[in-house]
Write a structure and sequence with these properties.
This protein has helices at about 20-55, 75-80, 130-135, 150-155, 175-180, 200-210, 215-225; strands at about 85-95, 100-110, 115-120, 160-165, 185, 190, 195. The chain is an alpha/beta fold. Strand 5 and strand 6 form a beta hairpin. It starts with about 20 loop residues before the first helix and ends with a helix.
Length: about 230
Amino acid sequence: METGDASNIDTGKSWTLWPFGRSKSKRFSQKEQQACKKDSELDNRSEVDGEKDREKDNLPKPKKIQFYKGLTPTPEQLQSLNLTEGKNTVTFKFSTAVLGNQQVDARIFLWKWDTHIVISDVDGTITKSDVLGQFMPMVGKDWSHIGVTNLFSAIKDNGYEILFLSARSISQADVTRQFLINLKQDGKTLPEGPVVISPDGLFPSLFREVIRRAPHEFKIACLEVGS
């Protein structure tokens, strides 16, 4: 690459990175501003005309409907589901451009207000340890405590409902539910009940349980909301 003498450079011209003329960009922006101004004036006129028509007809102003996301359904939403006592299955259907039509099944348990409930942990209570209890069943190893199905069956027989609470991630919901359903000892299985799981992802949940050793943080917060 060759370099020229700095004295031969014409200093009368200015060099910029913008390849178009400044005057063109100014004229273009002015046209855009005029178009936007006309559109806004038309919108304002239509809103004013609409308010005048409503005032003439003595019609009430339409209410704006606001939507918001939440993890807890309202009593009206629960009532619209027409739930029956016990286990109810609900299906969420959606469509994506990549996967097409999809659906997710979930369960909602409806209990009476005076139902006696026993809340049980999964890892370290039903399983022998927190970490290995998550991975050993995946390779076909039974890592559950001996006699746990007899204990929970006796609790159910005494008129209590079982709620399973775990700090596992939401991505492990199906695996955890299948583990509880398929666990069988001495011909007995675990009673059926809702499985409450952390809404966090896999890595945040593992970091909280394996590295920080603080799975109780989610469980305490969940119980406080439920109470």
